[in-house]
Design brief:
ten-stranded mixed β-sheet; eight-stranded antiparallel β-sheet; 22 strands; globular
Length: about 600
């Protein structure tokens, strides 16, 4: 498939994104003075911070004991990042390491290690991924940025490093043209690597491979999510698509980025934490911050002046992890793509209060002043513990300033099937309804035509999916079927939640409502047991953190058995979903009906 470049006139008419020409290559920018308009100013203070922290990182790296080229690394991303930091410092005229001989030496040593780890097919290893094209693409992200900056650095002392990086990049380019991938985001990371390589060493084969991947289509659902529905990989994809768009004149890709960034605006807590409960990848059980999206929000804020994006840039720049997540290593990105150096438009406060229901993901986000609420009911069914499937049992999260209810869960002892996992969310007015039906059964004798005298029947999965045995379940009649229905109704009113729990089915089944508060939370009004768990027997509990508190109740305690809250899929292998934090429990037996509020 050949590339279809658009005319400059048509390009400038794409006003919905105010592209300003940032999608063309650096070479075109240099020749056309596309961004030389007097109204564009550099963010001088930010650039000083980036330089200061990049130099600090360079200094720390120089003080570390060096790994020689005889040692094979298990991953090369960190080394690529080191090379990028050194190149940024040694190439920046205001850096204390500008033209530094010791940095020249370290760069040469680093490039030697990189080349030593590269296989003849152009790939490198990454942990358990052997000779991995996509992991090589992640390495190329930093290496190509470094090579682009070095291209404009005419210092002869860097000729050796330039030559070594060129060799690595072009060798890796062969792997990018032919190599495969594992996951959806890998396709776009590989395409971004190819776009970077092509900007340095043009070759139509790179463009053809990019177009081959792009021809598959980039999935983005109505909620603004990519197929992995992951904060980690959304940031990766957005960055990759921006790279492809600006280097290959493909502005339509920025429409996709814009929609995803709007979604993550709503997924961001007031302190910068990201909602990850609905992810289909490993981050569904991780703590992430929106700082991963800084370059993406900054780029799009410059080009769209979208108030949401401007607010996100300002939020990240004020966040506690901005130095570690951005300033310590992003100078190379600003040098490689000078568009990022522009001042963003004046802050225009966007909505602080909102209610946003993501119907495809079955996730609701509500913010009322200091209060932030997340409801989730969108797990993949049947629930399976595997990368690529959503399986987080947290159905409610509630924050009020520094006071944080990390999650609420409901577990049942019904056939040890574990936590409640809603079959979606039904929204009616300001009420959200979560429902689940669990079924378990027993099995009748085999019919005569399926009998075997030696009893050696097929090893198979039970019809309810709970276990495997040599029982030939396929040919048995299920009987004594037991059904448990759970309905949780959540009504929101100005940040206060009213919850109504109903669990019906076989009687005398243990029900446990589990609430986990952020570590360090002080609990008042509940009873502490010898294992450090709180039981709310009656009345209300106050969970205090700093000057903020969350009140919930009334409580109920009819049993204190906290064993096997996870399903047997976990406990059979001694696994657990129990997390760190301060745990408060409400318990009862079926038929279970309990109302409570959170405020």
């Amino acid at each position: 498939m050949s590339m279809n470049p658009i005319s400059r006139g048509k390009f400038l008419k794409l006003g919905s994104l105010s592209l300003l020409g940032a999608l063309v290559s650096d070479a075109v920018l240099a020749n056309d003075h596309f961004l030389s308009a007097p109204e564009t100013k550099k963010d001088a203070l930010l650039m000083k911070k980036l330089l200061l922290h990049n130099d600090e990182m360079a200094e720390q790296l120089l003080q570390k004991e060096w790994v020689d080229s005889a040692v094979r690394l298990s991953s090369y991303r960190s080394l690529a990042g080191t090379i990028a930091i050194f190149v940024a410092s040694v190439s920046h005229r205001e850096s204390k390491f500008y033209k530094s001989k010791i940095v020249f030496e370290r760069l040469n040593q680093s490039a030697d290690v990189l080349l030593k780890g590269q296989y003849s097919d152009g790939t490198v290893d990454a942990g358990g991924n052997r000779q991995s094209p996509p992991d090589t693409a992640f390495v190329l992200e930093s290496i190509c940025s470094a090579a682009t900056v070095l291209k404009n650095n005419k210092n002869k002392d860097l000729d050796g490093v330039r030559s070594k990086l060129k060799k690595f990049i072009q060798n890796a380019g062969e792997a990018m043209i032919t190599g495969g991938v594992h996951t959806p985001n890998h396709r776009w990371v590989v395409c971004a690597a190819l776009a970077h390589i092509n900007s340095l060493y043009p070759d139509v084969r790179y463009i053809n491979r990019i177009n081959q991947w792009l021809a598959e289509g980039i999935y983005l659902n109505e909620d603004g999510h990519y197929s992995e529905r992951s904060g980690v990989y959304s940031a990766v994809i957005d960055k990759a698509l921006i790279t492809i768009a600006r280097l290959l004149n493909k502005p339509e890709l920025l429409d996709i980025v814009q929609k995803n960034l709007i979604t993550y605006y709503y997924y961001t807590e007031p302190n910068g934490d990201l909602v990850t409960v609905d992810s289909k990848r490993q981050d569904q059980f991780m703590n992430l911050t929106v700082s991963k999206f800084y370059l993406q929000y900054r780029f799009m804020a410059i080009h769209t002046a979208n108030p949401k994006f401007i607010d996100m840039v300002n939020l990240i720049e004020k966040s506690a992890d901005f130095i570690h997540s951005v300033l310590s290593h992003a100078l190379i990105d600003f040098m490689e793509n000078p568009v990022l150096q522009q001042q963003i438009p004046v802050q225009a406060n966007s909505e602080n209060d909102f209610e946003q229901f993501f119907a495809v993901s079955n996730l609701a986000r509500i913010r009322r002043g200091k209060t932030s609420i997340t409801l989730f009911g969108g797990n993949d069914k049947p629930v399976m513990i595997v990368s690529g499937r959503s399986s987080n049992p947290n159905f409610l999260m509630y924050r009020k300033g520094d006071a944080v209810l990390k999650y609420m869960r409901l577990s049942s002892s019904f056939f040890r099937m574990g936590y409640f996992s809603s079959d979606g969310i039904e929204k009616t007015g300001n009420k959200y309804i979560l429902k689940e039906t669990k079924e378990a059964d027993y099995y009748q004798p085999l019919a005569p035509e399926f009998l075997k005298s030696d009893g050696d029947y097929q090893l198979s999965e039970s019809q309810d999916g709970r276990f495997w045995n040599k029982m030939d379940f396929e040919h048995r009649v299920a009987s004594n079927v037991k059904t448990q229905n759970t309905v949780i109704e959540v009504e929101e009113n100005n940040g206060e939640l009213s919850l109504d729990f109903k669990v019906d089915g076989p009687p005398n089944v243990e029900i446990t409502i589990e609430m986990c508060f952020k570590e360090g939370t002080e609990i008042a009004g509940a009873t502490l047991d010898e294992k450090g768990n709180y039981f709310l027997k009656s009345g209300f509990v106050k969970a205090n953190m700093g000057n903020d508190s969350i009140a919930l109740g009334p409580g109920l305690v009819e049993h204190q058995n906290l064993n096997n809250l996870d399903s047997e899929a976990y406990t059979y292998h001694q696994g657990t979903l129990h997390t760190n934090g301060v745990h408060v429990y409400i318990t009862g037996f079926t038929p279970f009906h309990h109302k409570m509020t959170i405020s």
